[in-house]
Amino acid sequence: MKVFRGFENVGRFRNPVVTTGSFDGVHIGHKAIINRLKRHAGIINGETVLITFYPHPRKVLYPETEGKNLRLITTLEEKIYLLEKTGLDNLIIIGFTPEFAKTTCEEFVKKYLVETIGARIVVVGFNHYFGWHRQGDFRYLKELGKKYGFEAEEIPEQEIEHEAVSSTRIRKALSEGYIQRANAYLESHYMITGQLAETGEFEFTGHKFFRLIVKDKEDKLIPPHGIYAASIEKDNGKMRGLVIISGKTEHETEIFFLPLDDTINLAGGKNRILFHKRIAEEIEVADKDTFTRSVNMAIRETEDLIY
Q1: Which of 13, 26, 19 is closest to 152 using CA atoms?
Q2: Alpha carbon distance 54, 35 (integer Å)
Q3: Where does the chain show beta strands of DSSP type E?
Q4: Are the C-beta atoms of 223 and 179 separated by less than 8 Å?
Q5: Is the per-residue pLDDT at 205 higher than 70?
Q6: 55 preceded by a cis bond (ω within 30 of 0)
Q7: Which residue of 18, 161, 188, 207 has the fewest C-beta atoms within 10 A of its own C-beta?
């Protein structure tokens, strides 16, 4: 997958099939859109192109209200990683600024989708809006397609067990600790990426704890306190473990990883912590005996899981 930062150096694509959006989480609905892009591209011998934004538009448009407390399912790095796994050909990351937010619907379509990218087909998800004050919808996009010579298509609302899939719904599930529900919506495991550092804060016979250092932690959605069955993934392999999330307040939250085997070397590089299930809600870290019992119980339950 080719990654472009801005429109300046994208060049021309071969029969581009394009979509645009935040794509936070790269969930099952997003993947349905990307699969439709790939299907169209295969028919017309084209390339798939996805335009996304950084930072998240809500953080720019509403910095003191809904954007202030918005926690994202994926960091930009995680989004790039997940999009590459879908088989997407091209990703364009646009710096979202107050100035860019004033781009009108037609200006965005004419200047960027048509003149810069040369879109042949534009695919959008259900209930998609774009442009200044979200004035553009699918009906208007179809009109612009006729005017500028591209085909527009809308993907119907995707559902799992009769519940509409959305990044908002996934954030709610994660913030309440419903990891398995969120994973079903994502069609992958929720992840937190960071570096591991050994810590002497927890002493546990036979196991070494690591502290997870997360970049831009204030923007990343961290599940509630508790113990989680997890696995860790690096370029050199994958292994099972526990994640412990604790802290006196939300802003003092810390994340620890306890490996349950020694199949990969955790030193150096980025680590992707994959969440599988919440085992326990609260854990008393200060009380060593209580902590030891809780961890032993979580280990036994985790070892019974198949993953």
Answers
A1: 19
A2: 23
A3: 2-5, 17-20, 48-54, 90-95, 121-124, 151-154, 159-160, 163-164, 191-198, 210-213, 226-234, 237-246, 254-259, 271-280
A4: yes
A5: no
A6: yes
A7: 161
Cα–Cα distance between 203 and 44 in angstroms, integer? 60
Reported as type and span, the H/E element at residue 11 is: none
Between CA 173 and CA 179 the distance in angstroms is: 7
* pTM for the whole structure: 0.91
Query: In order of start, what are the domains of the chain with their CATH numbers?
Result: 2-160 (3.40.50.620), 190-304 (2.40.30.30)
Name the CA radius of gyration of the chain, rounded. 22
Please list, in sequence order, all residues whose beta carbon lies within 8 angstroms of the beta carbon of residue 45, skipping any fewer than 6 positions away.
Answer: 14, 15
Task: Tell me the mean pLDDT in the region 129-157.
Answer: 87
